[in-house]
Design goal:
alpha/beta; globular; 232 residues
Amino acid sequence: MGINFNLPYFEIGIKNYIYGDDILSIAKFADKAAQKYDIDVMMITPYTEIRRVAENTERLIVIAPYMDLIRPGRGIADVLPEALKAAGAQGVVINHSERPMSLSAIAQTIERARELEMLSFACAGSIAEAKALAVFNPDIINPEPTELIGGMQPSDMPFVMESIRAIKSINPSIIVEQAAGITSPDQVYDLIMAGAEAVGCSSAVFRAKDPFAFIEAMICSVNEAKKSLALK
């Protein structure tokens, strides 16, 4: 992994909730909040906005939502890993529930990311799948039950604790994020205190009456948890 993370970090998934200039506005605000609270912020950024976000922020870790396994040359409409890297992407999401992949493709994509010194951010829909992905040594695993994604209910603590334990038992260096159904700063704090090294949020950001205030509150909560952990 070519990026030195300050853990814990906060992750924002844009998906297709907003587009164009609105993405840049969110990115710039999140970047300022990251600097204010000294917390790294990852942003899963649509392909079309990767370069703008990367060139206009300092503290954001910009990653792409997917990439194909092609190499430079012929082909059209596929997502070229080298092009993502050149645009400013520092990593890539692998096997999100909305873009599932075979185990073979997951393994190859993790290897391609490693080849380009990009972060591999692998998603797993269950603890069993998280254990299977850990064998491939991605940089980050996000275990999130598919039925909770986009909802109002986060993973329960037994799932959180067991998913962290299962992944770390295979490779302690893998960063474990928790992200499904997270809607409040209190949940962010509790998950980090329970052992999550990162917390992510997507739909709740854009359902909020004030997405900017919501983002700042979530990043502030990561900072509060970090300070609490330092005192333990």
